[in-house]
Every structure is written in C-alpha cells, then in structure tokens.
Amino acid sequence: METVKNEEKNRLICEIIEYLYEEEKKYFEKLNKPHNHIFLKLELLKTEKLSLLNTTTLLQMKFGKYVLSLRLKMKVVIIKYNAGNVRSVLYALERLGVQARVSDNLEEIRAADKVIFPGVGEASTAMTYLKKRNLDKLIVSLKQPVLGICLGQQLMCIRSEEGNVDCLGIFPLQVKRFRSDTLKIPQMGWNDIFELKSQLFCGIKEHSFVYFVHGYYVEHGEHTIATTDYALPYSAALQKDNFFATQFHLEKSGDTGHEILGNFLKL
What we know:
Blueprint: H1 2-31, H2 37-47, H3 52-63, H4 66-73, E1 76-79, H5 86-95, E2 101-103, H6 106-110, E3 114-117, H7 123-132, H8 135-141, E4 146-149, H9 151-155, E5 157-160, E6 165-166, E7 171-177, E8 187-193, E9 208-214, E10 216-218, E11 224-229, E12 233-240, E13 243-246, H10 254-265
Parallel strand pairs: 1-2, 1-3, 3-4, 4-13, 5-7
Antiparallel strand pairs: 5-6, 7-10, 8-9, 11-12, 12-13
Helix pairs in contact: 1-2
C-alpha cells in the first residue's frame, strides 16, 4: 500500500514539473529572452531521475507554490515618480519570475495585486512629483500590500528633515539626518538587521546583512519591524496594516533581499 502511495505521489510530482516546465518554456519563447535559473532548474528536474524526497524538497525550496501563479495571475506595479532604482527592482522581480509594470497611472496602480514604491533621491522633490500627479492621495488609500524601499520608506513617514517636507503620513514617524563625528555620512554598504518581526521576515535569520545607501533615517517606533544600528538604532523596516517598507535595498541585498521580496509577493 505504501509503495502505491509513493508511486502516486511521484506521478503527481512529475506532472507538476512537466506543467511548470512547459509554461516556463512558452513564457520565455514569448518574451524572446534567455531562459532564467528557474527554467534551468525545472529542466534539470525534468530530465534527471530524482528521489521523491529530493524532488518534493526542491519544489518547496526553489520554486514555492507561488512562482508560476504569480507570473500568470498577479499584477505587480512599481510606482513611477522619477526617483531612481526602478530598473534594479524590475530585475529583482524578474529573478523571482514576476514581470512587473512601471506606472504612474492611478487606475493601473489601484488595480494591482501588489504595489512597490521604491526610490533613490531627495524627499521634497519626490513629494512635489507625487502631489502633482495625485499619487500622494492614491498611495495612502491603497488596500493591497504596498512595499516602500529606501526613499519610499521615508516618504511613507509623516515628515522628513530632507527639505523639511511633509510626507505621506502613513507611519507616524520622523525622518532625520544622520549626525556623527566618527562615521561616514551617508551610510553606504552592508549592515545587519535584528529584532525582526512580521511575515516579511519569515525565514530570515537575526543579524542577516543587507545593503544600505542613505543619509537620513527613520526613527524607532511602534511600527518598527526590523532594526539596524549606524550611529544609533533606527528603523530598518516598518509595517502598518497593508503597508510595508524597508530602508535597505532589497534588490541589492543578495539572497536575503531576494527572500524578503519573495515573502512580500506571497502576502
């Protein structure tokens, strides 16, 4: 009886691999792009005779249930507001098997399943752009999961010392300028994050290292879900309801950033 059950499981797993393989193949042929690492691993699974345990583990670890469904069904929009690092975020999403759109169209953003609000730039200039296109009012009204990155996190706070500008006010926290006589400002490079909370950090170890580039920081508060220390402890990540944000660059933070971005897409 056990042998029959295992044979049935093996058959089902082979069918899943075959289906994923063919869908990946059609996807990359349609885009006329080289196959990515997900396709190549599926090809390996398809051609190699792997044990039931190894096959199941690989499916769970390397692909997750969401990889294909994200590509086929999920609409991910990156908010366009002329604040840099959009291309690197697009590439990071592509590595996860997701083709996102970059848009400042209000209806398109409102209709998305997930919204990403990245940014590298100056706070007051960015807020001027957002207000000019009514994106400031739209962002705070969104009900789907929203992820701010770097400047995006700072703009989701109540006020920034960078240009002394009022921001979106999603998080009731102040953005302040680093001040130190001993450390280089801005902070540029790898630093660890700790006191991790929220499903955003599912599977992430305490004191994992991620990549930062910033001269302003968000103070610590009740919505802090990750902390880092540079001159003082501050908010490396925030969450309030459906709004998430990281000060560090997920798209430049290697495997750790890749996993955190994947966690966001699974929310």
